[in-house]
Amino acid sequence: MSSNIRLIYSICPFCGAGCGFYLVVRDGVVIGVERIFDHPVSVGVLCPKGAYAWKLIRHPDRLTTPLKRTERGFKPISWREAIRLIADRIKELRRDDPDSMYFLASAKCTNEENYLVQKIARTIAGTNNVDHCARLCHAPTVAALARSLGSAAMTNPMNDVANAKTLFIIGYNPAETHPAIFRFVSEAKKKYAVPIRRLLLSRYAYTPSETEFRMIVADPRKTMTALQSDIHLQHKPGTDSYLLNAMIKIIIDHDLVDKKFVEERTEGYELLVKSLRRFDLEYASRITGVPLKLIEEAAIIYASNKPSTIYYGMGITQHRNGTSLVQALVNLALITGNIGRPGAGICPARGQNNVQGACDMAALPDFFPGYRKINPDTAKTMKELWGLEVPDKRGLFSTEMWNEALVGKIKFLYIMGENPLISEPGYYRIVRALKRIDFVVVQDIFLTENAKYADLILPAALWAEKTGTMTNTERRVQLIEKAVDPPGEAKSDLEILLMLLKELEAPFQYSGPSEVFEEIRRVIPTYKGITYERLKKNRYGIQWPCPSEDHPGTPILHTEKFPTPNGKAKIIPVRPEATVAQTGDYPFILISGRRITHYNTGTMTRRILELLLTEGSSYLYISPEDATQLGLSDEDIVELETPYGREKIPIRITPEVPKGVLFVPNHFIDPPVNAFTGDIIDYESGIPEYKGVPARIIK
Fold it and tell me: Which CATH fold would you assign to the domain 588-698?
């Protein structure tokens, strides 16, 4: 019996690193993956999630036909009936109450799909009520970087870590969350000892320096990343603004400011200096729990052992002051001139495979495509580009929408590829909200926890079953092409949206993803020079901004000026505040995060046996000191209670967490971690406060 085996280039569907691999396809079925040794991100290595991603493609749990809720449960219906039901609802509400509709896009879908869903929301439904999971992870990044630097993205590519002399990692554990990124960190620490360095440094002419590479990590936990640091600033959760302002104050006091850079390329420095005149370093040390000498050492190294790069994650953003914390990091980079050159940048590590692209496409309620802040003037610009009217006031953040749903103001919810019941704050609040919404559409690959509350379920295709572009955390736009057919009647998200456009008799129609991308190029300036033809030739992608078709792409941003009205970056003072505190009633601080073998809400990874065998359920991680004081042993079942919820959970004792701090992975539903979180959000960006919830343990 003969076999027809093909290797088809694709991208890992999990984190934002954008690792490349080949899907091994035999007789129309994916049977495995092959590594790509010259890929600029994965460099021939895959983490456990990437290695087993292919197991999702023919998973028995896949949705295969549209389903409609009835009194007796879900029943299969035709695509024609399903699309007509959605179109009728949109037409009805567009006429009577457009802002009663809400569209949730997805960081797991392609650029073309995200672009189209936000365009449908704005031009056909008539609302800016569109958002996606960036609201829950890097909304503060979009708000702060766009405001201060003029561009809401990582400034330097991942392999540029090798050009840094100092790496400052805060609120981020790449050893587990982005193994591909941490591989570059390890290479920098090894001082070019591994032969693949030529691949890592291929973009730059690099001259080794005798200056020692230093890694500073600020994290409440002793993570796998922190254990490899030269300096670990183990601050208390919720005190990041004190720590960062202390570092800035020390740099100013020690005259380590890059005065030339500040004068020529920034504005607002004087206000920063003024805001810190009475800042008490000793008090900052006490409130953070970090010895002042250690803060001083870290600040001086970052400012003097240049170039220095900052990497941060959701340990910074997921706070009620998340936008301010990102701004504090921007201030730190700007006053030291650590931006706009090799080895010097500020790098938000995006959590999902296309969260950068979904933001670029404006699947956001406060931006039009191209990061045009929504107002009457930009609405006119979009009308000129699209030839259609669009609303000129920002829509609701997804975190605001649920409260509106609870009081009956949201009547239609379209969810494309998200599982908000597990990811949004307040599990039981979301359940009540879903029950209150008149019509909920879920478009997904599995019957997720959220889909069980839907009125209509649409079976979608996986990444390997469709064609489109993805943009990774370093702005690398890559093209993936359909490798196999989806199961049953499942269709790509784009096909579903195109069917909906026809049923709505929309004034714009498309033949497929390439035609949608051509419009993206026209509407979003940073994508202008990227074409499908170029991406097919440049298999490993092109980094935006790419202003013309003969432009090679831009690995490093802001080398000469910032894309702001006057070409300068804004330094904006940040008020120090402690956002969480232990009390007599709640003596612990609960934080959450990821483990290396799982991803986000676990919708996909909890269906891969090989990953479940490594870690298959939720645990509460507690310090040995606290466990001894409470008389607890490993695997004991306790009740974890916060002001927002109370659930039973087994414990694991580990020195990874300090005394007074608890940790829960966010991938599982036994119990879901968002059962312990409330609806407190950062008023600037709308992100919930996941990191730092008062808690107590009941034995």
Answer: Barwin-like endoglucanases (2.40.40)
Q: What is the mean pLDDT of the chain?
A: 93
Query: Where residue 191 falls among pLDDT bands split at 50, 70, 90?
Result: low
Distance between CA atoms of 503 and 509, rounded to whole angstroms? Answer: 11
- Buried (b) or exposed (e) across 487-503, using 16+ Cβ within 10 A? beebbbbbbbbbbbbeb
Closest to 158 measured CA to CA, from 250, 268, 39: 39
* Closest CA relative to residue 18, chosen from 479, 413, 417: 479
Helix, strand, coil % (nearest 5) of the chain? 35, 20, 45
Cα 609 from chain centroid?
25
Could you give the CA distance from residue 589 to residue 236 in angstroms, rounded to a whole number?
A: 9
320: left (phi over 0), alpha (psi -120 to 50) or beta: alpha
Give the class (CATH, top level) of 5-56: mainly beta
Domain boundaries, the chain: 5-56, 67-135+353-525, 155-348, 588-698
Q: What percent of the chain has pLDDT over 70?
A: 97
What is the CATH number that goes with domain 67-135+353-525?
3.40.50.740
Q: What pLDDT is recorded for position 196?
A: 39
Residue 210 contacts by C-beta under 8 Å, 6 or more apart in sequence?
A: none
Backbone angles phi, psi at 253, to 5 degrees: -65, -30
